[in-house]
Amino acid sequence: MKTAILALASGVLFGFGLCVSEMVNPARVIGFLDVLGDWDGTLLFVMAAAVGITGIGFPVVLGRSKPLFADRFEAPAKSDIDARLLTGSVIFGVGWGLSGLCPGPAVTALASMSPSIVMFVAAMCAGQVIASRFEK
């Protein structure tokens, strides 16, 4: 139960951060990605803050013998760069650039019940189902 409460609190905090930073606003994200047009650099501050906190936080956290609320650290077992990773990265980047949304902000923006957001999340879920059919 404690794990579920911590996960919920973390998700709410993450969603709040996405809303405050306007990462749930596709126009803001597309404006940031449009470096050759009418560029909106405000999300650069969000990125700088995230990189700064991560740069300080990771060494502190990983210097511990174990996490505060778990028995051990969970890390991906796979670390090589392969065609599957590169293909997924390209698909993710193209989708993010075209729509201005990626999965976290899209799920958070569902609260708005905007038809375009609902369609994006439905398409994202359909894509996940289709991709899972091709997994080995």
Kindly describe this structure.
The protein is mainly alpha-helical. It has one domain. It has 6 helices and no strands. Helix 2 crosses helix 4 and helix 5 crosses helix 6. It starts with a helix and ends with a helix. The model has no long low-confidence stretch (mean pLDDT 90).
Q: State which percent range the strand residues make up.
A: under 5%
DSSP strand count: 0
Indicate the percent of residues in helices.
55-70%
* Largest sheet geometry: none
Q: How many individual helices?
A: 6
Instruction: Give the count of structural domains.
Output: 1
Q: In sequence order, what are the helices and strands, one letter per element?
A: HHHHHH
User: Alpha-carbon distance between the termini?
Assistant: 33 Å
* Shape assignment: globular
Low-confidence stretches: none
What class do helices, strands and sheet pairing give? mainly alpha
Radius of gyration: 17 Å
What's the pLDDT, averaged over the residues? Answer: 90
